[in-house]
């Protein structure tokens, strides 16, 4: 959506229409802004996902599920291995002593096939890489997770609220509040190019105990104490 807005406004030579993004995953890598400190152009706002969170999610998943040796990674990217996210996760996997199974899914049938591959290769848990496509298809993903009794961690609490096991990511309500401040500054005359893109400062761990019980998993009490929200 942000790329579409940028493309639409880039053809307007006289009036520059400001764009405030709320959940840009990696605006520099995707070419939306020149840099976080100096975005340039007409786009600024929030970035919702940092590379460091990828490894942290894997660490939290393995803390919740002891003894895991193989973890599947659900991604949309055609070449995840070339991305910093994968490098971060691979480093975390080596440190934690687990092997990764990278599975690409860009349509509904591919999601079904990905879970078939997980069970065939005996993955004991899976991680979902942030992408709007997976949010749109979360019911299908969650159905497979429940059917196969697979522990999982997601980048957004919306998965957990709909039956996913756990999530760790930015606090989106906070991102929307911060975006309102940006809009206020722009309406008062500040140029988007002069407003640094902000990274999230609030992260939340959400755990669904109902789901844990359904798949026969006992979440360590130490994790429950640290959770920002526990669904019982």
Strand order of the main beta sheet, please? 4-3-5-6-7-8-9
- Portion in helices: 40-55%
Number of strands: 9
Elements, N to C (H/E): HEEHEHEHEHHEHEHEHHE
Euclidean distance between termini CA atoms: 35 Å
Low-confidence parts lasting 5 or more residues at pLDDT below 50? Answer: none
Proportion of beta-strand residues: 15-25%
* Class from helix and strand fractions: alpha/beta
- What is the molecular shape? elongated
Major β-sheet annotation: 7 strands, mixed
What average pLDDT do the residues reach?
91
Count every helix, treating DSSP H or I runs of 4 or more residues as helices.
Answer: 10
Radius of gyration: 19 Å
Summarize the helices and strands and which ones pair or pack.
Layout: H1 2-9, E1 19-24, E2 43-47, H2 52-64, E3 70-75, H3 84-96, E4 99-104, H4 108-120, E5 125-128, H5 132-136, H6 138-147, E6 152-154, H7 157-161, E7 166-170, H8 172-187, E8 203-208, H9 209-214, H10 221-226, E9 229-231
Helix pairs in contact: 2-3, 4-6
Structure description:
This protein is an alpha/beta fold. It has helices spanning 2-9, 52-64, 84-96, 108-120, 132-136, 138-147, 157-161, 172-187, 209-214, 221-226; strands at 19-24, 43-47, 70-75, 99-104, 125-128, 152-154, 166-170, 203-208, 229-231. The strands form two sheets. It has a seven-stranded mixed sheet with strand order 4-3-5-6-7-8-9, with helices on both faces. The longest helix has 16 residues, at 172-187. The protein is elongated, with a radius of gyration of 19 Å.
């Amino acid at each position: 959506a942000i790329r579409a807005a940028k493309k639409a406004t880039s053809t307007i030579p006289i009036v520059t229409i400001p764009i405030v993004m709320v959940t840009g995953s990696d605006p520099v890598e995707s070419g939306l802004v020149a840099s976080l400190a100096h975005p340039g152009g007409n786009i600024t706002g929030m970035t919702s996902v940092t590379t460091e969170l990828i490894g942290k999610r894997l660490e939290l998943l393995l803390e919740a599920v002891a003894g895991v040796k193989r973890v599947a990674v659900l991604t949309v990217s055609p070449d995840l291995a070339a991305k910093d996210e994968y490098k971060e996760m691979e480093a975390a996997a080596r440190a934690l002593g687990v092997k990764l199974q990278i599975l690409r899914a860009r349509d509904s049938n591919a999601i079904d096939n990905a879970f078939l591959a997980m069970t065939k290769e005996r993955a004991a848990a899976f991680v979902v890489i942030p992408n709007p496509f997976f949010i749109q298809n979360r019911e299908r993903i969650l159905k497979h997770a429940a059917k196969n009794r697979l522990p999982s961690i997601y980048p957004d609490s919306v998965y957990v609220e709909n039956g996913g096991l756990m999530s760790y990511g930015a606090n989106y309500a906070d991102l929307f509040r911060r975006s309102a401040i940006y809009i206020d500054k722009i309406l008062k005359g500040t140029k988007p190019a002069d407003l640094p893109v902000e990274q999230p400062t609030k992260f939340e761990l959400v755990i669904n105990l109902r789901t844990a019980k359904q798949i026969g998993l006992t979440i360590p009490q130490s994790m429950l104490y640290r959770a920002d929200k526990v669904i019982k």
